[in-house]
Amino acid sequence: MSLWSAAEAAAATHGTAQGDWTATGVSIDTRSLQPGDLFVALKDQRDGHDFVAQALQKGAAAALVSHVPDDVPADAPLLVVPDVLHALADLGRAGRKRMAGRVIAITGSVGKTSTKDMARVALNGQGRIHAAEASYNNHWGVPLTLARMPADTDFAIVEIGMNHPGEIEPLARLARPHVAMITTVAAAHLEAFGAIEGIAREKGAIFQGLEPIGTAILPEDLPVTGLLRDCADAAGAIVVGFGRDGMARLIMARPVDDWLKCRARVSGEMLDFTLATTGAHFAMNAVGVLAALAAAGADIRRAGAALAAWQPPKGRGAVEDLGTIRLIDDAFNANPASLAAGLATLAGLEGQRRVAILGDMLELGEDEIEMHRAIAGDPAIAAVDLIHLAGPRMQHLFDALPAEKRGVWAENSAELAAQAGSLVQDGDIVLVKGSKSSRISTVVDALRKSGQTADLKRGDDECSIG
């Protein structure tokens, strides 16, 4: 199916098209490019212009470039523009303009990607759904999502993130959502914002992009909820709060095996739904999703039933059996709020021992040492038997822990990963969590290899007995 003709793309970007081509997709990476894609030659760590020839050889319909690369024929199918990133934003803007469906935008300090995926799954069977891939939520991810959006999309879910002040509002105005949801506001990227109130104002800027009479979905149970409401009111939005006491209210979230049985009241309706996780924070976000879908005009009873098919993304709290242990892989990101949620999940699961393996939380600003030390006072710590730690910041938590809970502290994640086999034992339930840049995921990889090796050894033993 055609996504962009040469003429349409040229009109959208004010560029010059070479050749009469038709693109069926949009790509920024030759490794995942599909035949028929428009290849966008962005500059990041590498200059995308260096890969245009390769993209065309792999079947790209054309390439979006600011100049003709030396190794590309002068008559190659191209779309030539002054600035590739600006042109991608223009293409996204045009994609949004021609789409007549409903757009839901999601931001928050924690849970953006998993919540976006929840919304996508919940809408299954309710029309043509388009959602951001992975964590495509920045200055190129949002326009790329919109540029990839088919014109006949019924519901679009756009994820919007930030690292610094002033990032969210222009992306929200590009997406022009009918509904905008904030999952939560927590201490993340404090180096750039200085205080939680600064983060709240930046998150609240998403409401400035709302279409007229748009709806703001925001968490009710935060110290900065009032500030978020002020942001929504300033944008002229209809406000729907979700939480334990909001208009969209979580009434129950009860673990049953590896599932959560949930009950909520949304838009005046009592809904029962099931989630394939034991993390209660996911249940709260699901209530926010249902409120957002109701505001977008979806059937929320169908949406609630469809939520059972949702799975936590890799590295974001999925529970898996790994040899003789159970692993909560939550190694993609960390801040005090998300770590507290991870520890609460661990505390709610049954195992011979509950073991936490934690890496540094990054970008927390000048109070980062105290924030790491304060984890020792988290209520869920009482239910955790052993805590292994990696990184200079986590050494302060190690020092603050009761002696009986101290496991191994290592200077970095690689050093801890090298000891993976001795960190856990049969029957353990294990949480691995840390900021992505702490590379605590290397411990997850090592545990998986250790579990596979143990399975193989047990298999050999069984064969020798037989």
What would you say this structure looks like, in words?
- This protein has 466 residues and is of the alpha/beta class.
- The protein folds into three domains: 4-84, 3-Layer(aba) Sandwich (Udp-n-acetylmuramoylalanyl-d-glutamate--2,6- Diaminopimelate Ligase, Chain: A, domain 1), CATH 3.40.1390.10; 99-309, Mur-like, catalytic domain (UDP-N-acetylmuramoyl-L-alanine:D-glutamate ligase); 318-458, Alpha-Beta Complex (Protein-Tyrosine Phosphatase, Chain A).
- Helices cover 34% and strands 23% of the residues.
- The chain has 17 helices and 22 strands.
- The strands form four sheets. The protein has a nine-stranded mixed beta sheet, sandwiched between helices. A six-stranded mixed beta sheet has the order 17-18-22-19-20-21, sandwiched between helices.
- The radius of gyration is 24 Å and the shape is globular.
- 52% of the residues are buried.
Main sheet summary: 9 strands, mixed
Distance, first to last CA? 57 Å
Structural class: alpha/beta
Question: Which outline best applies?
Answer: globular
CATH superfamily of the largest domain, by name, is Mur-like, catalytic domain
CATH class of the largest domain: Alpha Beta
Total tally of structural domains: 3
Domain Mur ligase central: 106-292
Enzyme class: ligase
Function: Involved in cell wall formation. Catalyzes the final step in the synthesis of UDP-N-acetylmuramoyl-pentapeptide, the precursor of murein.
Domain Mur ligase N-terminal catalytic: 24-94
